[in-house]
Amino acid sequence: ILPLTGIAGSAIAKSNQVQTGCVIEIHHTSAAICHLANGKPVSFEVQPLPISPVSEDQIQNLIGRISSTKKVIKAVNPELTDLTKNAIEGSDQGITCDVTPSSLIEQIADSAIAFASNSSTGFTTVPIKDPPIPFKQRAFYKPMLASICIATLIVGVEMYIKASLAPIIDERDRTRESDLELHDVMDQVNQLKEETALLDAEIETTKAETLPIQLRNELIGISLGNRTRFHSLLFEMVANSVGDEVILDRLSSRSGQTFQIEAWSLTQAKADEFVELLATALAEHQMTVVVESTRAAKNRLDLNGRLIILNISPITVPVDFTDSDANDTKGKS
User: Where does the chain hold its CATH 3.30.420.40 domain(s)?
Assistant: First the structure.
């Protein structure tokens, strides 16, 4: 149920581009006034028109009592429309008649339909048949609710298990990465052990191969020492100076007083040690050792090392051996 008068006020004001003001509907026995602000109704009143038929003076008095800057007037029929136009002739600019060609009854009907179809107005529809069964009372509601609860519980349990296992999985991944790194390190260690074992075997092989050469050098020194006392003493000192990694390749004599030694050493350190020992030993017998050259070279076993050439000569005069020296040399031989 909607009111007949006043319901078309917003539509009339909108048609006449009035946002703030009032709309006056002129009926046969009354006038409906709808006050608007910003295009929306704010109040509604009905003023009676007791004298029938309605006169221009009644309309003028009614409009004069309404305090509003803008006033839009709409009559219910053409007869009242003409009377209203005559009544507002000569009035101020704030009073106008409705410019739309639709009659007031048509505008009321249109406004009533729009008003009733708007859910925000507070009106409710009345169904023509029995209302449907409430959702909670339907047969499938409880099974569906149970299914939803079970599904929710399963999802919750899975999420809880996943959250609980996350730290364990992370720790497992870290442990796996550590194991892989440790495995790589162990492989490197084993490889180094194998390489070290090969080097040790090569060193032992080299020692075994050089041992006969060292023995031969000693025998050569002893044999040459038997020739003269000086030669014996020289060979003895040379043999004593030769280390494990030094091989005496050649010893030659120049004019019987100067000598040249060619030796091969596995390392430069052993070569320097050999020269130092020989020079110290010969210095006691007024002999000097001069390194003629030293360079990288391979020995007869095709091993890389250092080739040393030494020159041995007396400082002043040849060494004068005494009988005691000769006896000592014979005993050492």
Answer: 9-121
Confidence of residue 319 (pLDDT cuts 50, 70, 90): very low
Higher pLDDT, residue 88 or 289: 289
The helix (run of H) or strand (run of E) holding residue 97 is strand 95-97
Q: Are 25 and 74 in contact (CB under 8 A)?
A: yes
Residues of the chain with CATH 3.30.1360.100: 212-332
What are the tens digits of pLDDT across the range 77-136? 778 888 888 888 777 667 888 767 777 777 777 666 666 665 554 444 555 677 778 878
Contact 39, 19 (CB under 8 A): yes
Q: Comparing C-alpha atoms, which of 89, 90, 96 is closest to residue 72?
A: 96
pLDDT in tens, 259-283: 888 888 888 888 888 888 888 888 8
- The mean predicted confidence, pLDDT, of the chain is 78
Q: Give the 3-state secondary structure percentages of the chain, helix then strand then coil, rounded to 5.
A: 50, 20, 25
272: left (phi over 0), alpha (psi -120 to 50) or beta: alpha
Q: What is the distance between the alpha carbons of residues 185 and 272, in angstroms, rounded to a whole number? A: 39
Single-letter amino acid, residue 299: N
Pick the CATH number of 9-121 from 3.40.50.1580, 3.40.50.720, 3.30.2350.10, 3.30.420.40: 3.30.420.40
DSSP 105-122: HHHHHHHHHHHHH-GGGS
Q: Measuring CA to CA, which residue among 62, 111, 105 is closest to residue 84?
A: 62
Residue 73 near residue 97 (C-beta atoms within 8 A): yes
Cα(2)–Cα(237) distance, integer angstroms? 140
Strand order, beta sheet including 246-254: 246-254, 258-265, 304-314, 287-298
User: What is the spatial distance between Cα 247 and Cα 267, in angstroms, rounded to a whole number?
Assistant: 11
Q: Could you tell me which CATH class the domain 212-332 is placed in? A: alpha beta
Contact (Cβ atoms closer than 8 angstroms) between residue 303 and residue 213: no
